[in-house]
Automatic annotation (TrEMBL), chains A, C:
Family note: Belongs to the acyl-CoA dehydrogenase family.
Pfam families, sorted: Acyl-CoA_dh_1 (PF00441), Acyl-CoA_dh_M (PF02770), Acyl-CoA_dh_N (PF02771)
Protein name: Acyl-CoA dehydrogenase
Cofactor(s) required for function per UniProt: FAD
Acyl-CoA dehydrogenase/oxidase C-terminal domain segment(s): 233-394
Highest taxon above the source species: Bacteria
Domain Acyl-CoA oxidase/dehydrogenase middle: 127-221
Residue ranges occupied by any Acyl-CoA dehydrogenase/oxidase N-terminal domain in the UniProt entry: 7-123
Gene Ontology molecular function: any one: flavin adenine dinucleotide binding
Key words of the record: FAD, Flavoprotein, Oxidoreductase
GO CC aspect terms: plasma membrane
From TrEMBL, chains B, D:
The family this protein is said to belong to: Belongs to the acyl-CoA dehydrogenase family.
Keyword terms: FAD, Flavoprotein, Oxidoreductase
Native source organism of the sequence: Mesorhizobium zhangyense
Domain Acyl-CoA dehydrogenase/oxidase N-terminal: 6-117
Coiled coil: none
Record-annotated Acyl-CoA dehydrogenase/oxidase C-terminal domain positions: 242-364
Gene3D superfamilies assigned: Acyl-CoA dehydrogenase/oxidase, N-terminal domain, Butyryl-CoA Dehydrogenase, subunit A, domain 2, Butyryl-CoA Dehydrogenase, subunit A, domain 3
Single GO MF annotation: acyl-CoA dehydrogenase activity
InterPro entries: Acyl-CoA_Oxase/DH_mid-dom, Acyl-CoA_Oxase/DH_mid-dom_sf, AcylCo_DH-like_C, AcylCo_DH/oxidase_C, AcylCoA_DH/ox_N, AcylCoA_DH/ox_N_sf, AcylCoA_DH/oxidase_NM_dom_sf
UniProt key word Zinc: no
Species lineage: Bacteria, Pseudomonadati, Pseudomonadota, Alphaproteobacteria, Hyphomicrobiales
Domain Acyl-CoA oxidase/dehydrogenase middle: 122-215
Protein name as it appears in the record: Pimeloyl-CoA dehydrogenase small subunit
Known cofactor(s): FAD
Alphabetized Pfam families for the sequence: Acyl-CoA_dh_1, Acyl-CoA_dh_M, Acyl-CoA_dh_N
Length: 399, 378, 399, 378
């Protein structure tokens, strides 16, 4: 038992820190501080920088152009990245984190050759078409159909919550190719360009007044059968593979640490009478409670990362990490706007799409948008209630 | 002891429900907030004709001469329909401040115009460093040969962009946090030296940060130096009103959520059939009832002695703040993704509740204020 | 709308306060402070004093020897009573609060004449036999049988949680007299002496190490058919009538106010370094949060009391009152032992049955026992989960 | 980085499970606590023969020379069986204090006897006004021609009634709350001037309040005036041990509760089938896993620098305290009335968790201590 980072890992941390300090463009970090979603052109610029260093796909094996880093190294990278206000999402759209792993694990050689390089360079921007209006947590009930017609699938249906589809040129989605089998078994995983005729994208404005979500409609969309990744009918398995992976990432351990740092900075810059909010014992107590939760989350996360590197798949812990991580995200963003007091209630749209509160300090800009958008943190990626259902099943079965 | 509404109060409730039902459906509201300012001149006239603007203004000055309970009834109805007209600013603060602090001449001049809807006021009290303290005021008024000139900065002056006059809380003596030396002034926002930085608030209304640079005040309201008592009394009343808005908003939100979980299906059944959803709905309703009891207490205590009044207002604000968090956050959670969209009313109630929670002092502030007041259980 | 107490009510408060101040024996108040349950002989002594004043049955109509007070007056009485550390239960056993109302509402004239006077004087000490090992929240599933045999019922079965049965000479209980109808319909309400042959009482020691609970076994217990109160098969209705009544009482508004007062006194007498615990902002904050909850509970309770006086039966509010009241009971007792720190962990049994912590101040004695015993506050009288089920039904039905 | 237990650690775990399974079933425990003192000489001898008493004592002094992780493994096992032997007092505090603060001569004298089970120690540190602060000490030691005499009052000295010697924290200089001027003394409880007021603790163990009236100390442990560093280091290690006991107790409690809800029927079905019960079980398990992660962190950090060690210990104590509340209270709630009886193990775990929550500093204390330590996120 030895939980200290190895000398190699410590050296790795220094390397990452130095690289990001020297190469992350100041304007991109600045936008990332003020806005929840980064502009696609900034994202492309940044991805190219990372790609040049060979770091544009931290989670991928070297073989496919990734870094080959261990999960622990990825965690270290993520920590340095977040502390430096690297932009979210980490890479362009859902290419690196979502569709890439499915393609290199289940895709054909041709698909690997065609799609992976353009993900690495950032030239393809992928969006995800999983959820449908009638099927949120109950994904297996999805209704979008893909019917074989000669060499093509004809797709009809509707997707919802397609994040950043308006920035994307590629989409991966789940569609039902067989209605005669059990709901989970008739689903396939398809990839195709967003400009394929018959696709309509309609913006959904979220409660933060921002546009990152969309509805995507398919009306007789014809795509070649080579759009199928892996086997027909196995889409459900691939999606579960992805969502399992995702639980670690969306717990946002490192990002919440950075949020807590900023929260204290906001309090330091928030005058109260003759002092500042940071002097207030009640505020301190609430911030400390969150910090302790983050210590816990980090300890849990490091262990899961180590287990991943050992090939141990700890589903129980991953579910708990997502559950607690999303609660902590909400606790720290909630306390951030509480700290802002009256200044946080001003909420003005600027030209670049960011939101602005005139009387708030710089460090607090963007915090209300973040708070509002992250109400979804306990909904997406398997809602809290869904995680609890999953956990109950595991625990009752003896996990 | 009697918990019944009077006949007038019941009629007031009915007329509010009737009018709002006809004129304030969610799609009408959406059209309203797309405007600038995000409310309607026509609605304001209707409010006037129904007596709602003059609700607590004495009959002698053209009002109905009712009290805080009636204002609570209006607040609850307005909260349940997200009414955006500047009622809190102009009526709850504006008319009551003049009523509480103004001279007889000022009352006669302003109250009738407020009641008939031809004069709209906004109240500039908060400053960057004041957080929620009413007596932390750096803005100062200099006495001159023929009046006062005001200098300083105010933030989050609700409805300032559409107000005819501003009521400004400024210091005529003492240090920044002193409880004495505060005075109220009537200021014309078009006067030289007034810079208004208008913006949208998180709940799609309007407010402004205002800089006063040697601005000549139109009038001192009442007498010099003792404004805090009146401001505290009116703010406690405004808290009762705001809490009532919170109760109205929570009730609407819970009703919408209950209706949704009864029809939304997942895993082959209505999600409202799941026991955890049922108990969550119960939790929200419990919060509503707790907030309702406290809001009534705050409204009834508006005319009690200052200690009781302050205790009731602060306790109510804490309760409503806590409840608003629970109800708002869970209403979105129970709706899932769809609750995150600006197209549904859910997020708008959520954001209004955020405003209700913070305005006039957040949970932490009022818990501390409550703790500082004498208690029989100390 | 006028929530102020009337002049009469204010005068009534003064009268109650004066009477209790002058007549509650100091030793009884002292024991009540230190012990959760009062000794039966003290209870009898105190009941006689109250009876002499005509106050031994605050909730009963004048006609039956009660006070005829309004619910608001009863609330005032209760407040003065608790602030003076009057002993719990208010009156001997469950006579006044439970079986009395059933007898004068549903009983025969003979039963009224026979039982009510001895409840008023305290000479009969009643215990309650409702719960059974297999039926807690699900009371309708009870299995104790009462079979008619000539002029008698023969009772067989087992009751559990029979509070203070070892002090009681009378018992009222529910038994199944008809197994051919729906579970709720075959239950009857019976009253009989505890020394009837065939009854065995076995103590249950609770986690506070105290003995107030019992198991009661019936083995061919023969009681006359005149033991039946009201109609055969209506016992379920009478029990629900009782439990509805009880919800107001067991919210313990006034008693929790007194608990909060004592809590602050404990903090005042708890040295921390150079000061006391009362100076600590975190402690203050927690105590304030409870006080605000109590303001709420009182406002809710006063309204329910007024509604009761108007003949309005607000089941929703009563359920919420019980739910929140029991949570507040636990919050204040929990904070009380937290305030005691190390001194609360000492837990020694004294001769008189009370528990003692040598290094704790006088005002804190008995607090650990209370904390432990009141873990049951969210279980008895319809558990929190049961209240939530009941409330869900009402709310879904449009309440 | 490696989360695996060593082979020795796995063996230790197995031997604990085996022995406790045979000797520490609940009915055996019940018989044990009916005794005075509520533990067994025979068990203590078994602990010694298995090496558990000398777990962190160097091999040169008759121990195994293991570390805090091993002590954590023992804590978890002991917690899950409510072991009442004075392990925390005599081993976790006693042996480690002598190891950390004692002279070589003292180590050679005492450690072998502790390891073999022939000397039992208790640690007297808390005082009425100290609450949880280790350096708030009024008890003082006066230097005399041939040693020291101690005067003062200690409270809640765990296992004092059955201890052979007391280790007493006393002031040799400075004011009551100073961090310097503290020293440790070995005191014979049979010495004149020692008054022991023994009592039962809430979890059915034994402790005492002790008055020292000019008591001649047997020895100064180590050197004069700088004991706080050693006491803090050992206490942080004891916190890790106590947290592990909490984890063990919570795990046993959750297992018992899950087993109960699966069989207990209400309304015609097992209550464990109700979704709210299922989610409650999940809540408890989540608490357990959070506490487990933090306890491991505290144990691993026992040898880290003082700041990291203190941060880990305090964070773990806060987490375990919070979790203990949730798990303990809900285990009773889910059992219903039967959980309130002293006949079941449930209430006993509940009371042990109460002890774990409070001993060595409660949630509030450790949250404040954590906040006072340097942090990279400040």
């Amino acid at each position: 038992m030895d939980l200290a980072l190895s000398a190699e890992d410590k050296a790795f941390r220094q390397e990452v820190r130095a690289f990001i300090r020297e190469n992350l463009p100041a304007d991109i970090a600045d936008t990332a501080r003020r806005m929840f979603h980064t502009h696609p052109e900034d994202m492309l610029r940044w991805t190219k920088i990372l790609h040049q260093k060979g770091w544009s796909a931290p989670s991928w094996p070297k073989k496919y152009g990734g870094t080959g880093w261990s999960a622990v190294q990825r965690y270290i990278f993520d920590e340095e990245y977040c502390m430096a206000d690297g932009p979210l999402p980490l890479m362009a759209g859902h290419g690196v984190t979502m569709v890439g792993p499915v393609i290199y694990t289940f895709g054909s050689d041709e698909q690997k050759a065609r799609y992976l390089p353009r993900i690495l360079t950032g030239d393809d921007y992928w969006c995800q078409g999983f959820s449908e209006p009638g099927s949120g947590s109950d994904l297996a009930s999805l209704k979008t159909r893909a019917v074989v017609d000669g060499d093509e699938y004809i797709i009809n249906g509707q997707k919802i919550w397609t994040s950043l589809a308006h920035n994307a040129n590629m989409i991966f989605c789940l569609a039902r190719t067989d209605t005669t089998v059990k709901p989970q078994q008739g689903i396939s995983f398809l990839v195709f360009p967003v400009d394929t005729p018959g696709i309509t994208i309609r913006p959904i404005i979220s409660i933060d007044r921002g546009h990152s979500l969309n509805e995507t409609f398919f009306e007789n969309v014809r795509v070649p059968r080579s759009s199928l990744v892996g086997e027909e009918g196995k889409g459900w398995t691939y999606a579960k593979f992805l969502l399992g992976h995702e639980r670690f990432t969306i717990a946002e351990i490192a990002r919440s640490k950075r949020r807590l740092q900023r929260l204290r900075q906001i309090a330091r810059e928030t005058p109260v009478g003759q002092g500042t909010l940071l002097d207030d014992p009640s505020f301190q107590e609430k911030a400390t409670a969150i910090e302790i939760d983050l210590v816990m989350l980090e300890q849990m996360g490091l262990r899961i990362a180590w287990e991943m590197d050992q090939g141990i798949d700890n589903m129980l812990s991953a579910s708990i990490l997502k559950l607690r991580g999303s609660q902590i995200i909400q606790a720290v963003t909630e306390l951030s706007i509480e700290a802002m007091g009256y200044s946080g209630l001003a909420y003005e749209s600027l030209q670049d799409g960011s939101m602005f509160s005139p009387s708030a300090p710089d460090i607090a800009q963007g915090k209300m948008e973040e708070f509002l958008f992250l109400r979804a943190a306990t909904i997406y990626g398997g809602s809290t209630e869904t995680q609890q259902n999953i956990l109950a099943k595991m625990i009752y079965a003896g996990a | 002891m009697d918990y019944r509404f009077s006949e007038e109060q019941s009629m007031l409730k009915d007329s509010l429900q009737g009018w709002l039902g006809r004129n304030y459906q969610f799609d009408q509201w959406r059209r309203l907030i797309a405007r600038k300012p995000p409310h309607s001149e026509e609605n304001w006239k209707s409010f006037a004709s129904m007596g709602w603007l003059g609700i607590t203004i004495p009959e002698a000055h053209g009002g109905l001469g009712f009290g805080a309970i009636d204002q609570m009834i209006i607040g609850e109805a307005f909260g349940s329909h997200l009414v955006t007209e500047p009622y809190l600013s102009s009526i709850v603060f504006g008319s009551n401040l003049i009523l509480e602090a103004g001279t007889e001449v000022q009352k006669a001049e302003w109250l009738p115009r407020i009641a008939e809807g031809t004069a709209r006021l906004a109240f500039a009290f908060a400053e960057k460093q004041s957080r929620f303290s009413l007596n932390t005021v750096a803005t100062h008024a200099q006495k001159t040969s023929n009046g006062y000139t005001i200098s300083g900065e105010k933030i989050l002056v609700l409805d300032a962009p559409s107000a005819d006059k501003l009521i400004v809380l400024a210091r005529t003596g003492g240090d920044t946090t002193d409880k004495t030396g505060l005075s109220l002034f009537l200021v014309d926002p078009k006067n030289p030296g007034v810079s208004i930085r208008a913006y949208s608030t998180v709940d799609d209304r309007q407010a402004a940060d205002i800089i006063f640079d040697n601005v000549v005040a139109e009038a001192l309201i009442g007498s010099e130096g003792d404004a805090l008592l009146a401001v505290e009394a009116v703010t406690d009343r405004a808290i009762a009103y705001l809490c009532a808005e919170g109760v109205g908003a929570m009730q609407a939100l819970i009703e919408a959520t209950l209706a949704y979980v009864k029809v939304r299906k997942q895993f082959g059944q209505a999600i409202g059939d799941f026991q955890i959803i049922q108990h969550r709905i119960v939790d929200l309703r419990v919060q509503l009832e707790c907030s309702r009891a406290m809001t009534l207490y705050a409204a009834v205590s508006a005319t009690a002695d200052a200690n009781e009044r302050a205790r009731a207002a602060s306790a109510a604000k804490v309760q409503v703040g806590r409840s608003a968090r629970i109800v708002g956050r869970n209403a979105i959670q129970l709706h899932g993704g769809i609750g995150m969209t600006n197209e549904l009313s859910i997020g708008h109630y959520f954001k209004r509740l955020l405003m209700v929670e913070t305005m006039l002092g957040d949970i932490d502030f009022h818990q501390k204020r409550f703790a500082s007041l004498p208690s029989e259980l100390a």
